[in-house]
Amino acid sequence: xxxxxxxxxxxxxxxxxxxxxxxxxxxxxxxxxxxxxxxxxxxxxxxxxxxxxxxxxxxxxxxxxxxxxxxxxxxxxxxxxxxxxxxxxxxxxxxxxx
Amino acid sequence: xxxxxxxxxxxxxxxxxxxxxxxxxxxxxxxxxxxxxxxxxxxxxxxxxxxxxxxxxxxxxxxxxxxxxxxxxxxxxxxxxxxxxxxxxxxxxxxxxxxxxxxxxxxxxxxxxxxxxxxxxxxxxxxxxxxxxxxxxxxxxxxxxxxxxxxxxxxxxxxxxxxxxxxxxxxxxxxxxxxxxxxxxxxxxxxxxxxxxxxxxxxxxxxxxxxxxxxxxxxxxxxxxxxxxxxxxxxxxxxxxxxxxxxxxxxxxxxxxxxxxxxxxxxxxxxxxxxxxxxxxxxxxxxxxx
Lengths: 98, 290
Prior knowledge:
The complex is a heterodimer of chains A (98) and B (290).
Chain A lengths: L1 H22 L20 H53 L2
Helix pairs in contact in A: 1-2
Chain B lengths: L21 E6 L5 E7 L17 H23 L2 H13 L4 H33 L3 E2 L1 H62 L4 H50 L24 H4 L1 E2 L6
Antiparallel strand pairs in B: 1-2, 3-4
């Protein structure tokens, strides 16, 4: 099951990456909204729409990150169960042999 | 494929609260640890996207603009154009934007797109190198379908939005920078003339010259403001493209495309780890040939 574990590790690593991107999604807020510091006044009309894109994106990235993390956990569990089942199977075979 | 009795039990499971550096064990097909990869805990890891420092272009621009504004404003007050001209002056300068902000966002979204793509590739290649050739059976099929049609598609939807956002931020960056420079150019060109004329305005001829020059300046300023409004409306187009990509994204991630209705269940079925069937579901690929 080494390959499954390795794949689970990869999936988990990607999940971590997606979750970190989720937290780093840029929004327009704070100083960027102050006049003569960030967004021009005309641009303020668009800010909330760009923010809406950022928020939805961030949510979706969260969904993907969680899904990948759970996949990774499922695969690890599958590997554990497989090993346990195989061991039990071998033990049973050994018992039947004289 | 045999499994040794001493399976490495410790495995770094990302996303679980951990403290201190952890190790990720990479094993070969028989479960022996080939190498360990130290993995920094998530919170201590460097911020996912590099931070760029504002080169201060905009600050310097505003700093340079303010004395010029003073001169033109006092000249316009003397010319008698008064409030209308001052209102335009305020409108024009408030519409200055910090181009660095948009540049930063452009790069930020671009980097996010790059990271997404590398995450997707990691999963894709790991599946075809590690799982595909070594395993078959129901669970491996499920996993394969999931990688091909589910994970990849979700990554692509997210990636599409980052691309459009980066493009939209770039066009905003360009527009804002051009507008800033044309406002600055106009003030720089007009302020010395207006100052000179204001100094001569005690004489009736000087006063006429001042009024007409201030009129020229104000109409140029008015054009600029109108120009910026037009440009901003054009950026509506960018937003439109982004929002279309966003619809795809919503449809992929949320029930009926509506975040309020909840997330889709996008996880791998836990059945693949079912104790009762795990040996049927996962079959080593080498078993066939044995």
